[in-house]
Amino acid sequence: MKLLKLLVVASVFCGSFAHANEQDSYQTPSKALADLVDAKLAPTTRLSPDNQWMAFLERQRIATLQELAKPELKLAGIKLNPKNFSRARPRSKYLSITFKHLENGQNFTVKGLPEGRILSPSWSPDSQHLAFFIEQAHTAQLYLFNISERRLISVDNAPLNSVITSRPYTWLPNSEGLLINLAANANNQAPSAENASIVPVISQTSGEKAPVRTYQNLLQTPLDKALFSFYGLGQLAKVSLSGNVTKLAKPGIIRSFVPSPNSDYILLGQIEAPFSYLVPYSRFATNWQVIDTKGKPVASVEKQTLAENIPQGFDSVRTDRRSFSWRADKPATLVWAQAQDNGSMKTDVPFHDFVYSWKAPFNSEPKLFAKVERRFAGIEWANDNVAMLSDWRFSDRKIRTQIINPENPNGPRVLFNERSYNDAYNDPGNFVYEQTEFGTRAVKVVGERYMMLTGTGASDKGNIPFLDQFDIKTASSKRVWQSEAPYYERVRAVLDDAGEKLITLRESKTEQPNFYIRNLKQNTLTQFTEFAHPYPDFKNIKKEQISYTRDDGVALSGTLYLPADYKGGKVPVLMWAYPLEYKDKAVASQVRDSPYEFTYIGYWGPMPYLAKGIAVFDDPKMPIVGVDGSEPNDTFRTQLVSSAQAAVDALVEKGVADESRIAIAGHSYGAFMVANLLAHSDLFKTGIARSGAYNRTLTPFGFQGEERDFWQGQAVYSAMSPFFHAEKINEPMLMIHGKDDPNSGTYPMQSERMYNALKGLGKEARLVMLPYEGHGYRARESILHVLWEQEQWLEQHLLSK
């Protein structure tokens, strides 16, 4: 069957695998590995705003190859399903919905759902309904479930369009209905190549600099533009709780529709021509306006122009008004930001952004709300007296949050927190929110003085989650509660004003996560869920967090897992890592996980191979640090090899690793790391590189955290590209890549070209190209085959002596 063919490019040496005659079929790994693919994980949850009901959503973890093989269109950075006007391959999809009451334990499952994937569930602000849509072969339809009546309501004859707005509905804050994006062309014929004009595809520069990252799935022809217009065309409509549909405004390519807190207005963004062959839809021209809930235009907010020439830099932005939102604690006040530096943070100005506000009925001029020294990162609203304004800057990776008085935002500000956004130890956590009188969510303020925060509590002892109380008057925090060993427990909801009644998610090394109700005042802990252990065969593996130091003094750490039957002595080791960039050595040294977390044995990473008697060193830190004015990548290779050497030395010194049998593996930028380590060190016996990029000249306007373009940093680009150093790779390397990888920079040809280089140089390599797969792998057949490929590779190159 043609669909089930797998293009596997053979290794350059004869008899590389015992399965050479099976190269044109999908394979299944050993049972212990295959069982992980079908392991049933705990469901996703949604807590109702009134904290009374928890919805449990059974996850659909994997797809079938037939699902991935369905026709897809790739337009303006989007993969879409032309049959049902939906995004192709949504990540979070569900199979069933069950409810359980927090106090009386009452529970039931929704019955009568049609076949299809459940997507984007959300509670109404009044907690009376759960909305979701179900995607089927030829349509996507909205459903409401009335929790008190236990009644399912279908919104019939209203096909949804989630091509641009991946969630094609939103609740009105007053809970009296919803707004939806209808597929305006659901009953019309799409443009086709047969009736399209054949014309040249012409692009022309304006003479202005227009550095653009390496995007994929862009528009390429006039027909693509016509198809984008056809499938993107939506019709805004209002849906009542009984399922009646009322159309609003004229059809358009709807990018966003957000109701005001008082439910009287809608902020509507519609994409307009001209379209671009150079950038994705998010940078197309967009007309932003306010309409009322009958569809009547009220005010024009901004006509954003096509943004092909945003200045170079990760904190660069378009020069139009941007970042539109409603103020959460007011009936109808719009807020947005606008650059004061021509969009470039490299411009020396006292304020890089101005923030404006505009109050209904929008018949006066917008007001300057606040001046922002760095790049505007958002406002968290609390009330008339308190809001949190954040700004950031890429050059030093700094983010800052200041407490402002919304009545005088440019007056005295209280510094709440300033840190590197990589600095986990000084992360103050996230504010606890509550529902406003309008049905929106705002930061909870108790007694006009106290706010609460929850966080992971990163420390040199690992993550210790916490609940803090912040005193606005004294600008100081008090710890109310924190997790205690040997458990890893974090707050999922605060159920009262005093912060004494909590919903927590609790786990240990051997106990799977479950929800609990914790009463701090009464010192009680009541288990709310009883999820089963998903990997009973892996219960007895051993886990240890180890720390060590590389030769430049940077402290590092990783998590070591030992097979269940480990009796001591040296064993083969599989290391799985991913480099990260920093501007501070102390921050780079931070521990970012907990020794008490439950041990997940997912099919995605290295953990399955514990079943083969291989020790796993997971996430050994590979920090790339730029200090004293240098950029991190100036010494990428040196730091990468140094980190790997320190990890190997630590494992050998511990008496666990057989230093002659250590493998290195990684995905995406981790694959890039693998190829570099094989080229520039002799630490590893073999490598596994998945969905990687190996030639940085193919990403000439930056990659990962590198802002310099190729012409500004040719030496850096060439030094970092393992393709340029393929002749130095003298260990066997397995490469795997999805043939439809849409990720920026990791074109499938990156792996194909790297393989061709290794083959031409007489190196030992194997390339597996997975049909229909993207940057991550979705189909059951593909996942099983990847596990098999990696298992066979490790058996031959790591376990074999």
From TrEMBL:
InterPro entries (UniProt xref): 6-blade_b-propeller_TolB-like, AB_hydrolase_fold, Peptidase_S9_cat, WD40
Peptidase S9 prolyl oligopeptidase catalytic domain location is 644-798
Superkingdom classification of source: Bacteria
The record lists the membrane-crossing segments as: none
Please verify whether the record's keywords include Protease: yes
What is the annotated signal peptide range for this record? Answer: 1-20
Give the record's keywords alphabetically. Answer: Hydrolase, Protease, Serine protease, Signal
Pfam families on file: PD40 (PF07676), Peptidase_S9 (PF00326)
Q: What is this protein called?
A: Prolyl oligopeptidase family serine peptidase
- Identify the species of origin: Pseudoalteromonas spongiae
